[in-house]
Amino acid sequence: MFPDFAEQLRLREQQGLRRFRQIVEGPQATHITIEGREYLAFSSNDYLGLANHPDLIRSVCDGAQRYGVGAGASHLIHGHSAAHHALEKALAEFTGFPKALLFSTGYMANIGVVTALVGREDAIFADKLNHASLNDAALLSRAKFIRYPHLDMAALERRLAESDARRKLVISDAVFSMEGDIAPVQALVALCNKYQALLLLDDAHGFGILGQQGRGSLSVPGWQKHRLPNLLYMATLGKAAGVFGAFVAAQADVIETLIQSARSYIYTTATPPLLSQALLTSLKLIEHDEWRREALATNITQLKREVQSLRWKLLPSMTPIQPLLVGDSQEAVRISQQLRERGLLVPAIRPSTVPQNTARLRISLSAAHLPHDIRRLTQALQELAAA
User: Fold this and answer.
1) 208: alpha, beta or left, given left = phi > 0 and alpha = psi -120 to 50?
2) Are 288 and 214 spatial neighbours (Cβ–Cβ below 8 Å)?
3) I need a labelling partner for 264 at 20 to 30 A (CA). Which of 50, 103, 114, 306 fits?
4) How would CATH label the architecture of 54-288?
5) Spelled out in words, what is the top-level CATH class assigned to the domain 5-41+290-386?
6) pTM for the complete prediction?
């Protein structure tokens, strides 16, 4: 007998946990149109406002003229184009690693890396608030899955010291997608060096935003990436970079191992080369448009200042991810809906995405938001809090 899917869906809706898709008409921007109505959006990961940049659009058109649309095959057959190869070289240089490897998505990158590098005789050590893709990767690897409290380096060290696994792999978000806080990257590197563990950092929400010229969470003065043989750096290209895809940067032998063994790389069609052409342009904008990061920092400061008096409090974050903690899932959904009625899009994030009783509004800021955009949001929140 089939499970009662309808009843399961009814219960999810009753608990305020059912999710719905929204059909966007037109390009991603701070102002978007859904079903004929315009909204001011605080729900996108387009942190630098590049998703609809005219230079990227021109690069896509040029790429389509040169390479066509589809890649036609996997990278290991004949789908690896000159555009893919040029982008991998540019990403390696930009992040300071010897080699980089493109993946179709961040999810596929994490799955591919973890399952290629560890197995049954190994152990994975993971921050409890890691992204779902890292958790799923750990489970698929069949390695022993050991979690430590969020950002607790002392607990991580105890677990590493106690382990006699053949190979140890520490996996962590660099910027946590629902918290907005930043992992202690230097402490993680030091612990992994001490206990001879590999380290995979997921910088999906830090790449393009943090570090010198947006080079990411690993852009630490004095670090020479070629002398960090146990470090793997993953970042996505559909957030701050404004396009699509992901990459892993690491030592040459690690990248070659992934080419030979990462199933989510081997057994999938390569992404359209025109996207790589656009990303080469995006990298230049990320590197040279410092004003975008400056505008983003100004927007973060303004939001923090203007919501101080609210009964809901922002979680500690200096990144574009600004979570407003509500607690109850149904109340978070209600506030999100009332903002929507005012033409403001701010998603309610609920369990199981976040822990129980920590439902929140996930406010995502962009360099493209203007001061009056943020003021419109904060005034609406003040009205709802007073009601």
Assistant:
1) left
2) no
3) 50
4) 3-Layer(aba) Sandwich (3.40)
5) alpha beta
6) 0.94
